[in-house]
Amino acid sequence: MSESECVGPTSSLTAAVSATRRGFLLLGLVLLVGCAKKTTLVMLPNPPWPALDVPPLYPVQTVPPRYEPPPDPGPLPSSPSQATVLARSTWAQGEPLTTQMNRLSPVRYITVHHDGMDPFFDTDQRATAARIEAIRRAHRRRGWGDIGYHYVVDRAGRVWEGRSLRYQGAHVKHKNYANIGIVVLGNFDRQQPSEAQLASLRQLVSSLMDRHRVPASRVYTHQELAPTACPGRYFQQFMNTSRRRGRLG
Ligand SMILES: [Zn+2]
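Above: inputs. Below: predicted complex with zinc ion.
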């Protein structure tokens, strides 16, 4: 029987005459079902959706998720000393190259340096800004992302922002991890630090120790961590004396 020659239960009656009533009914039902099925296949159009296109139980992501960088931590918590820190934007002639810098881990150390260039006695703000910019350029030429120090203390005792505290510094070889770097402007093998510098440095270090919970035993000079003359004999003397008096790390 072809699909187009489907016969209904009525046309089967003759063949079923001799059957019992129950047999007839069963046969009729079988024919009815079979025929209905075949009629359906002939008469109805194909379903408009592919047989396997069943909606999944859970949405399937066909596009890989886009990488989202971690959210910006926002401004750093304020501290009393922050009001007196001159922003990086007041002196820097170039933006930091953040791809070259790592995030600063929670601070554990503070290290003090001198700049070690020619002696510097200027207290003028513009001359000072130029000196800091010269240091930044020198550090960028080494391939670093920004000036290596986080803070600068000038001859007049002003404190300048260097590399943002969001980023690890570049000031002690192999020991920059969790280490805040402070540079005091001048060459303290060849000149004495000014009183204003010393007072300001003491205040800055003390404020950073409080803010980051750094104990005195983790405040260093560069030469205490690496073979170098930095921060110069006169400044090292000041650090040693301050420690003996319990006024610094
Ligand atoms: Zn140094």
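The radius of gyration is 41 Å.
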